[in-house]
Amino acid sequence: MSEVTLSVKGLKKVIGKREIIKNIDFELKRGEVFGFLGPNGAGKTTTIRMLVGLIRPTAGSISICGYSVSKQFTKAMEHIGCIVENPELYPYLSGWENLQHFSRMIPSMTEERIHEVVALVGLQERIHDLVRTYSLGMRQRLGIAQALLGKPKVLILDEPTNGLDPSGIRDMRKFIRFLAESEGLSVLVSSHLLSEIQLMCDRVAIIAKGEVIHTESVKTLLTQQERLLWKLDPQPAGIDVLKQVTDFVQVQGEYVTTFYEEAEVGEWNKQLIQAGVTVKEMNRKLPTLEDLFIEMTGGESID
Amino acid sequence: MISLVQNEMIKLVRKKRLLIVTLIMGVLISMFTYAQLRETQRLQEKLGTTDWRSTLQQEIIDTQNRLSGSQISDDWRKQLEIRVAQQQYYLDNDINPSEPGAPTFVRGFIENAIQLLLPLMIMIIAADLVSSEYSLGSIKVLLTRPVKRWKILLSKYITLVMSVSFLILMFGVLSYLISGIVFGFKGWTAPILTGFSVQGNDLNTADVHLISQWRYILMEFGLAWFVSLVVGTLAFMLSVLIKSTAAGMGVMLACLIAGTILSSMVSSWNSAKYLFMVNLNLTSYLQGTAPPTEGMTLGFSLGVLTIWGLAGLLVSFLVFTKKDVY
Q: Any idea which fold A227-285 has?
């Protein structure tokens, strides 16, 4: 589990006088899904473009499976597959021809491998139609097929569920988990939705204004940040009870907020009832991205 | 490398660019053939004869009449005088300068097309070779494959050279076949005079010699190929520099049209001869008409075009390999 496939150290990008990316460091390990969480304009896409060699970093190093992107470009690119923003392929060619086109750019490719990836993304039936006629979901799948052609060790997906319908999003999530767990790929997924990251990632880096402000396993992050909302009657008596059992009690209108601590909430509830307080509602709530940011940056807003 | 060029060729063919350009060529050639036919018929009606000597004699008289008028600019007068001298030379040597037949049409057509029509066709292909990848966004996929950037650009350039060659070939074949239906397919071996040179205001006939028409046409197509390649290279460079295909085409179009206008105006602005667009009319050196401005020879024009072409190529590669892609 601990084999590092992608490592980024001290990454910086200056355009004109503006520092767009300031000192980003992170590592991807084999078989994990790594989330890249941040609002639009935080520098997610710029970072991803530097990872795949589209943009030259001003400073810092990126290595993929031990090969430096700037010094051993072709070696590094053999181990990476990516979709940057939307999957943009040639609409006037068929799906199959698109795959053939890109397979010619990879050393030692076989026709079987194209069949394999087509089967993997489940596009067998429409693969010989023109890409122009594909739905967004199908284009997304073709894009992934293209990224997987060269049997990469690292897969980079920029906002992979953008524009997909709910069932498409669910399929995509399952597929990403499958790639990481069964095929042992390291997958980097960027998103601006915490719920998304929560559902498919093992670890997450939170990025704002070109900096990683926090890297954490998703489990820890959630247990730290998850809140429980209580609707109590009568409220003042309920607050007194809660204050005895936990340190953090906040009142927001008719709701009372505490941390969510799985092992103890049952006990708290029992005590409330014993004190004659009616619990009308208990609601586990995930903080929004904005809440997280305010928490982590100490009150600074996102932009 | 071969597979990269194969990729580019497939894209070019599937985008139907080559087909469209070939079709445009076919339509234009048909139109010009018809126009040429009407012109010949009109001359015959007017003179009541099919003898080329009397036709040519009539042309000389017509031109001389125009020269005696006072409304003619000096530049134009010089051009006309040289033309008359040339026609007189043909007449004196009893050689028909426009032997009827498809080869003569091909010869005349390429002479007219080399400055604007052919470069425009090439531009249609070259201008979107790189910029279309940007507008589609496929450049991001293309550049994240394990292939160095210069190789990708080189494969595109090789594709350009191949399509230029293909289009010049099609141009020749189509104009021969279409005009042949009307004018007949004979006339490849008709003699042509070449080697005229202009010195000051006089036509120098010292080096004039006869060659057969097919050799002359071959030379002209060689020059046309070179001009097209240089224009193609410059359009290719613009395609790398400017992300929008339309903007790239616009810039190139403006240059080409400016070139045709400038050619008739630069006699007093001598340093304009270093611009590529006034050097496109290479076949005029074979015909021996007066160049746009003094000091321009075939060698000079070839040199200027070569330098522009190489510079364009250099800029393309430097920019493409260094550029950040957003």
A: Alpha-Beta Plaits (3.30.70)
| Sign, Cα dihedral of B149, B151, B154, B156 | negative
**pLDDT value of position A1:** 43
Interface test with A, best of B134, B144, B150 (most A CBs within 10 A): B144
Q: Are A201 and A35 in contact (CB under 8 A)?
A: yes
CB A3 within 8 A of CB A62: no
User: Does B154 touch chain A if contact means CB atoms closer than 8 Å?
Assistant: no
Assembly ipTM: 0.80
pLDDT at B317: 94
Sheet of strand A4-15: strand arrangement: A18-29, A4-15, A59-64, A67-68
Contact with chain A for residue B80, Cβ under 8 A: no
Q: Is B223 exposed, middle or buried (0-12, 13-18, 19+ CB in 10 A)?
A: buried
A173 pLDDT above the threshold of 60: yes
List the single residue in B10, B14, B138 with the smallest CB-CB distance to A89.
B138
Cβ–Cβ gap A54/B4 under 8 Å? no
CB–CB of B10/A93 below 8 Å?
yes
Quick check: B11 and A49 CB within 8 A? no
| Of residues A168, A165, A112, the one with CA closest to residue A141 | A168
Q: Residue A299: what pLDDT?
A: 53
Residue A225 has pLDDT above 90, yes or no: no
- Facing B144 at nearest CB: one of A75, A82, A93: A82
A:B CB pairs within 8 Å: 78
Name the β-bridge partners of B204: B197
Residues A79/A152, Cβ–Cβ less than 8 Å: yes
CA distances from A263 to A217, A260, A269, A284 (A): 20, 9, 12, 14
Domain map (residue ranges) of chain A: 4-222, 227-285
**Residue numbers in A near B3 (CB within 8 A):** 104-105
- The pLDDT-based confidence of A2 (bands split at 50, 70, 90) is low
Coil, strand or helix at B43? helix
DSSP H helical ranges for A52-165: 73-77, 95-103, 111-121, 136-148
CATH class given for the domain over A4-222: alpha beta
- Note whether A86 contacts B: Cβ–Cβ < 8 A: yes
pLDDT in tens, A93-130: 999 999 999 998 888 788 888 998 898 888 888 899 99
CA distance A126 to A145: 13
**Low pLDDT (below 70) residues in chain B:** 70, 75, 198-203, 205-206
| Residue ranges per structural domain of chain B | 2-28+98-322
